[in-house]
Batch of 2 targets.
Target 1
Amino acid sequence: MQMALGEASGALVIELRETRLDAAVAIRFKDAIRSATSHPGTPVILDLNKVEFMDSSGLGAIVGAMKLLGPERPLEIAALSPGVRKVFRLTRMDTVFRIHDRSPETQTLPATG
Amino acid sequence: MTHNKLTHDKVLSTSCHSTLEDVRAVLVRVDAYLRAADTPTDWIEDVNIILAEVLSNIARHGYPDSTGRIDLEILHKRDELRCCIIDTGHPFDPRLLRQAPPEPSFLQEGGYGLFLIRTLARALTYRRIMGCNRLTFWVPVGTRQVVAEMAG
């Protein structure tokens, strides 16, 4: 699970460097989010600009990540492809997450594997 | 892939093992095939979502104690895509489950897949025949040229 960490306006930005967020990687994704956010604090923006496809397992993993972070640490989402946005829209989960149209401008932190 | 010379219908037949990795590989192949066929992106997205949910359901629940086989046949007609998925796993009729999606505020981590299938697939049929699950559905497709013609 390739991810790059950055920082933008006080938020931790996690850019997922995968083209698919699906059933085959959903558990690994959640584990990677858990370790990337192990230091408590800042809000988290999940940048999905590289993700071309997401299925319901991927959506479930993002919901799981949100619950993992807890109500005090909001998870926002950025840069959805049309196909990914469709899954959020059809399930009405776009009403739950704050969704940014574009990737935030980040200062890069050391990469994680 | 085979072509029917009289109708110009194309058939994409493929199969995979019931593992999530194999399912992903098949989905990537189908996506590449549809893109090469100049199918409008919006419909490719629908096919990708339905097939991903159907195949990963079979991979996860159809063969709990072993790895089985999943056959997929896609008949690509001029303006529709007819899909047929066959497996020999546990009987499972996705039409029998509720149609409503999970309530967003409940923050469920599952339960969206069958809703997506039922929302996007047209004429979803299921039959259990001779120990096989046979699921069929279609989605409207076509090339950009066909869409332009239909729009007049």
Note: Residues 2-150 of chain B form a domain with the Heat Shock Protein 90 fold (CATH 3.30.565.10).
Target 2
Amino acid sequence: MDFGLLLQQTINALTIGAIYALIALGYTMVYGIIELINFAHGDVFMTGSFVTMWLLTTLGFQGTIKDPLTLAGVLALAFLVAMTVMGAVGVIIERFAYRPLRNAPRLAPLITAIGVSFILQNIVQSIWGPSPVSVPQIIDVQASFRVGGTPIRFLSIFIIVLAIALMVALQLFVGRTRLGRAMRSTAIDREAAQLMGVDINTTIALTFFIGSALAGAAGVVQGLYLGNTVFTAGFQAGLKAFTAAVLGGIGNTTGAALGGFVIGFIEVGSTYLGYTRWSEAVVFTILILVLVFRPTGLLGQQLAERA
Amino acid sequence: MRLLKLGAVATTAALVFTACSSSPTPAPSGGGGGGGGSVQEVKIGVDLPLSGGELPNGGPTLNGVKLAVQQISVPGYHVTVEAEDDAVNGVHDPTQGSKNISTLVNDPAVFAVVGPFNSNVAQAEIPVSNAAGLIQCSPANTNPGLTKGADGAALRKTNPTKIAYVRVATTDDIQGQAGADIAYNVVGAKTAYVVDDTETYGKGLADVFDSSFKALGGTIVAHDGAGKNVTDYTSLLTAAAAKNPQYVYFGGVTSTGGGLLRKQMVAQGMGNIPFGGGDGISDGSAATASSFLNLAGPQGDLNTYSTVAAIHDIPNPDAFKAAYKAAFSTDPGSYSASAYACTQIFLDALKAVGSNREAVRAFVTTTAHKYDTVLGSISFDANGDTSQHIISYYKFDPTTKDWAFFKQKDFGTAG
């Protein structure tokens, strides 16, 4: 077995897995707090990639930025803008599409979510058209360092490190802060939390903001990595990320992250073995097997005590 | 009736005196149609992808039809163009194509149809036009299975003896050979990596490239299929790069991943490896939004080749180009002349036998008929395929940021 190739494919799997994991977190957080499968979440990610494309082209960047300081500044700006805009979009979606239906039968917000998904797709399509568009790749896609003769791209390392940093920050926020505690208590028992003085509406809006901001970050990363986006990108990625969330145990943020990486490895692994055409079939077969033998996912639902 | 001289003369004359851009005037009455000056309204139907990312394919092709209708008048008839769009969300769609052809079949004024552009759309349309007996001429379809062998027969099983689909583009069994010819003889590559988009056109083309490249003496290091949902080719390319191919061939169209694949090759350090594809990636210059060269990006389109399954050096290129430019203010697309030729053939038939659908169909598909078109002399064989087996070779030109024609090759009686 060629060690160098294995190493490169491992990095590829971690990179694509990091993107899935970032999106999966939003699915799992929303499900955890209001038990809604937010089908519009994949399209929030897609819109984030278009916002990035718009920002970079408006600023006049066409390709690689050579100067490290400028690059760091533009990257920070891109993440700030995409995460803030998409976070705000998430809050708006929650306020107008889901909050009025919070006490309705579960099927109603699910259908609304599908509707919101189409609305986002159609808005993006009407602004930027139905065809794939180029996203300026401001990080040099070829720049790499060598590990035992195998080139490893800085871009991949950047994406993996960034995704892990965001996930750790999320864990700390949910686990160690007052707002995080409010989120957890709302997830466990909404009424009891309210009685204890937690502002339910603000807490749920905050959950949507964070989840959507992470999807916005994934949108930036996708643009940098693939150099291209299209208005249907949210459906594919959303489906994979949703699968990742279920695989890891929906409602469980660590599980969602793990699920994202597992799907990255399954996809790259089937390519590695020469079965690219089968990668989606393999992903969903594994999902079915996991659900049959471990209905709560790999790490189990964190909210098991509620059921 | 070996050569339809009349049509040829009219065409050449029309080409020399560039088209007037005003609305088409009714044909002068009292011509061959006889009768006291009544002009019959007839339509040529068109089905092409006319929106989104495939507009660069469909638009210039539709213009070819419009130009022919503007330039060539048929006494006793006023011909208009009825265009349908088969792109859904920017991608050609077989279901939409079959709806469109039904719409055209149900319009009694339509006597012939130019289109479609994509092979999988043709697959959905041929059974409908065959059952209705409405003649279709595709300027661009190249999949062999549409006409040849058991696959072709299956598509026209309603009226097996009545061919209702002809094409002026030659087939992928020849285009794939040409792709292999570029890789092996022009570039000098001995090893190649092949990716196809798993669709009718893309996989068919890639399979012929695969076998032709081996027949020439080359080695295929790997052949992968990645459908249009694949956006990340990184892991495929990582695996392929380890096998050091000297050439990469893509069977598919831009909207199913061609540009993206070329762009991501650069990230894998494969930017200098020559890349080739068929007419599916020959869709306009880098300045055209969503074209292959546009999406492949500034580094990705060096050393890139494509083929077009049509003659480039048409008998009278300057006149055609000038007429086209006068009418539409741009240069013709790869298949504009082909669409013009389809329309010429239909107008010849209209002139000879009138607008009855069955008469037109029978006239066009008569194998003994030769048509002197803008592409040169063409006849159709018993399957409806063109007698012209010429492939044009293109290479990316970094100065103009566009495809530059460098050679055309006649594959003669092959295939």
Note: Chain B has 13 helices and 16 strands.
